[in-house]
Amino acid sequence: MLLFRLSLVLAPALLLATLSHAGSVIEFETVEHATGSPLSGTVKLSTQGSMTRLDIDSTGGDAGLIFDSGKGELVILDYEDKKYFVMTREQMDAMAVQVSDAMQKMEEALAAMPPEQRAMAEQMMKGRMPQQAPAQSQPKSTISKTGGSGSVAGLDCDNYEVSQAGRKIRDMCVTPWDEIDGGRESTDAMMAIADFFSGIKDAVTAAGGMTALDHQQEMFAHMKDLNGFPVSSKSFNDDGVLTSESRLISNESVSLAPGDFAPPAGFTQQEMF
Q1: What fold does the segment set 2-94+143-268 form as a domain?
Q2: Global pTM?
Q3: Is-contact 168 217, C-beta < 8 A?
Q4: Which of 241, 217, 220 is nearest to 172 (CA)?
Q5: Using alpha carbons only, what angle is made at residue 79 by residues 232 and 206, rounded to the nearest 5 degrees?
Q6: pLDDT digits (tens, 9 = 90+) for 207-264
């Protein structure tokens, strides 16, 4: 459950993470449609130097994290119980080993069952256990300019469409990097967070929705090619149904203090494992 909760925090937000020598605060409004009833909220990212802080205020519950790319340390904020967890790279690597070992043992146990029992066990565990990555690679996506344009939070942007295997998977309105404070450095921050989770992602690419990291990395590759930042985006599933959307509300350059990247007052630290 912890990995799943993290994925819900990271999936709409990794694309927005920034690193810059001057501090900056970027705020987006988001809507997740793939969770049954839509979950709406705001995503605020405060960044300075090696520090990135994410705070989500959502109808599905508040969430947050603080990431220090210099230390390779992630702090997970639990607003409901007013506590926080610290996860290091070593702990993440150890978790990857545990998940991999557990899956191997499960596969060995299934292999020893008669075919009928194995089929029943696999059906019962479907959706409850992480699934191994498919052997085949995902088809490459392509991006094309639609010719339209728009304006988001006072910033002019050009419309683009991302397609995969002949179907549209994403719409974006892109503003040049230099129009967004810390925009160019956002690639480095996103990659740093994705690298932190790479051990788990490589061991079980679908664990708790961690494939979202792959999607965000792909999206950033397009942004690097376009030399721009998506101030609005909409994602669609295989049936063309809208699954999520985000839109820039505001961004500003500010001077942030070390305390801005610390757990809130009154929060107590809990052990991760």
Answers
A1: outer membrane lipoprotein receptor (LolB), chain A (2.50.20)
A2: 0.69
A3: no
A4: 220
A5: 60
A6: 444 444 555 556 666 677 788 888 899 989 888 999 889 899 988 888 889 899 999 9
